[in-house]
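Reply to dn_fold:

You asked what the input looked like. This is it:
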Amino acid sequence: MEFLLAIMTGILYAAGLYMMLRRSLVKLIIGLIMISNGANLLIFLLGRITKGHPPIIKGSAEVFADIYADPVPQALILTAIVISFGLQSFAIILVKRAYKVVKTDDLDEMNTTDEGI
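and this is what came back:
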């Protein structure tokens, strides 16, 4: 399972980077979304996948010896999802405004226009 998720993380990073190197702004946003999802999977994999119990230590125990699910990567992923959603929303609105003014989606054509946004 971890090997499959590691392969999927690599595929998401590669596809996201490929999409970000395209000339279209829409493909740039799709690439940004793919890279953020790849980063979330990477954080999830670094926290080790375990089917265990929540990390609650009983009062009588000094050391927790059972297998437990680590809550820190889950909290980091949740925070990353919220931040990436805000970034994606901002980027979509920015691209929509740029397209409305310049009338093109191509980055090379946007560089050659004299109109300002």
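The chain has a mean pLDDT of 85.
Hope that clears it up.
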